Structure formats: C-alpha cells, structure tokens
Amino acid sequence: MNSKYTAGDKVYVIYRNPHTANVANIKEAEVVQHPNDEQDVALFLYDAYHRLSDDDAVFSSYEEAELVYNQLFDYEQYD
User: Fold this and answer.
1) What stretch of H or E contains 10?
2) What's the pTM value of the predicted model, to 2 decimals?
3) Which of 42, 54, 67, 77 is the S-S candidate for 34 at Cβ 3.0 to 4.6 Å?
C-alpha cells in the first residue's frame, strides 16, 4: 500500500476517535517520509506519525472519502 503514496501527497482519512469508538471524521493528512525508516512513508495526522497499513481508510480526494464515509456510517438506513 505504501508504494501508492509518496512524501508530499495530501490525502484524506476516515479517522475514528480512539476515546469514542462510534465517532469518526474525515481528516486531511499529509504523507511524509517515515521518521524512523527512510524506505517508508507515514501519515502525519494530529501532530503524530502513523505508519500506513492496508486497513487504513486513505483516499486521494475528500469526495471519495465522503462517499465511503456515508456508506459506512449512514445511520439513516436503520431508522
């Protein structure tokens, strides 16, 4: 997955609040050189580095992230 992104890319992630599991937001993040591994990149989000993994919800555009977000968290379908 990491080869899909290069340092300097702006991406959008669906980020779950670690303190409240049922809260998620779309956040802009930057792909940066990983500070501990020059052969890898990481997400820089909330002033912290996050190693990219295959299960991260990372998107090239806000619109793409919003589409998936609405599919995952469309609570109106349960009314």
Assistant:
1) strand 10-16
2) 0.80
3) 42
d(CA 63, CA 36) in angstroms, rounded, equals 32
Q: Which residues contact 2 (CB under 8 A, 6 or more apart)?
A: 40, 41, 52
Can you tell me the distance from the alpha carbon of 56 to that of 71, in angstroms, rounded to the nearest whole number? 16
The separation between the first and the last C-alpha atoms of the chain, rounded to the nearest angstrom, is 36
pLDDT digits (tens, 9 = 90+) for 23-55: 889 999 999 999 998 888 999 998 999 988 888
CA 31/CA 20 separation, integer angstroms: 25
